[in-house]
């Protein structure tokens, strides 16, 4: 009896060689067997024993990809052996050799993966080897598919947005991340059980509009709309949802989308309208259109911007009906929007403003209900903003999305690689073995492929706007320090400032800057001099694991922003203008970290520059930041 022990680097990795444990006192396999597809004989590594107890010891000591066992062993039956194996490893494939039909009929229920005729295997070790190879590759493909799905789920859970995938007719929820529970106040499980559940949360005055939008998506149209929802505790929130159809062979098979809470933005718009409604408010100084309607919906107050946009004199505006200001095709939309403002207290809609010369200009309007001290309705007031003035902003967003595409392509490559390997192995298995189990694996691969495309589609859509809020820099930086591998590096916090920013994007900015310093800034520690900028608070944190040694990273405050500096090797002066370009890196890797930082800075309307820190390392200064009182 000879043992061939071969330690595998990864039990579940798809490799050129598979390690099979053969448990048989009359072994039928040997390592010289040739596979039908002409594979190298070295692709099979065997460990052979004649007893079940000895085989169990081999399982403890070696990475085994598959087991071939005889039904009749000296110390126990093959089925009993399979049951013990299953208690220790629920996944490793077990192939049972038998001639008994009764044994074969109930073998699978005893932990056996598949059954093979011993008579057939006599003299045909190639067939037996091929059967166990197919079982192993099937198992490895399933493991790869499961691992890829976990990666996708983890990716989605990093987003603060609600990401979802519905079937083309909205009857099945195929994917949703846990942000649903935060936004809607309901469990993911309840939505999976009843995909129409989210509709019950939508405000009754918005439901018809949402249903019409859903029908348009099912017909192949992308939509972007805002509506109100009511959580189970009675809290009302505003939601912005973007939905995109996925079309296969001319049919909408899936609908992918992202939703986010815009309640804070709506609150700010409402406050602005209330301020403008004051009789003493200098409405003519407002660059946007201002309008006020009485309880009958007639225009009673406006600013100079409305007269300039419509090219009408004030005397003409006073006598005109509301719908006369808009293109005929948009008048029903305007009427419904104003009715919604009277009924619910606020509304928003898009419509083309009609000038005295008959030309049209696209506008976005918001409106809020005006009430008296006794609660009675006095009218509606609101503002209108020309959409064409946002073209430069849209162009900037499109450029950001193009850069995001570059990053997404790199990430998708890492996700698709293991799936492509699994699909290739599955195709080989299907050519040689017809099994419903392999069909199930193929469906699982297709499902994961769909999720990859859908989630990447969501990522490529980008964000049309940021919902900023007050964010303490110290809290965000400390959180990032716990999630980035910083090794023995030390963090010094020299700020207690509170800034206006999108929390998730600000965390991403600091994570990338800290990771950049750790990966590219390592150098023997030198005496650190004080960085410039006002110091409000200083905190030191150190971690013991990782690659960085004797590196200090400092986050401090500037008059109109903040900085991240280190005492590492720094960035050469002639390369500082290039660090934000995709693919730039001082070490091996894709080099997209600082490109992402640049995008986040641009999205907030800030500026970023690179300089040398007082200690000779790199210093990134972010300016144009709005501070809040701490």
Strand order within the widest sheet? 19-17-20-21-23-22
Mean pLDDT reading: 76
Reported by name, the CATH topology of the largest domain is Rossmann fold
CATH architecture of the largest domain: 3-Layer(aba) Sandwich
Please outline the major beta sheet: 6 strands, mixed
> How many strands in all?
24
EC number: 2.7.13.3
Domain PAS: 148-221, 283-345
Organism: Haloarcula hispanica N601
Domain PAC: 223-274
Q: What do you see in this structure?
A:
- Helices cover 39% and strands 24% of the residues.
- Helix 14 (391-432) runs antiparallel to helix 18, helix 16 packs across helix 17 and helix 17 (503-520) packs antiparallel against helix 18 (593-604).
- The longest helix is centred in the middle third of the chain and has 42 residues, at 391-432.
- It has five domains: 1-154, Response regulator (Rossmann fold); 160-268, PAS domain (Beta-Lactamase), CATH 3.30.450; 287-385, PAS domain (Beta-Lactamase, 2-Layer Sandwich); 391-457, Orthogonal Bundle (Helix Hairpins); 466-522 and 550-628, 2-Layer Sandwich (Heat Shock Protein 90).
- Mean pLDDT is 76; it is low at 1-15, 461-465, 523-548 and 582-591.
- By secondary structure, it is of the alpha+beta class.
- Residues 517-545 are annotated as: Disordered.
- Residues 148-221, 283-345 form the PAS domain.
- One of its GO terms (molecular function) is phosphorelay sensor kinase activity.
- Pfam families: HATPase_c (PF02518), HisKA (PF00512), PAS_3 (PF08447), PAS_4 (PF08448).
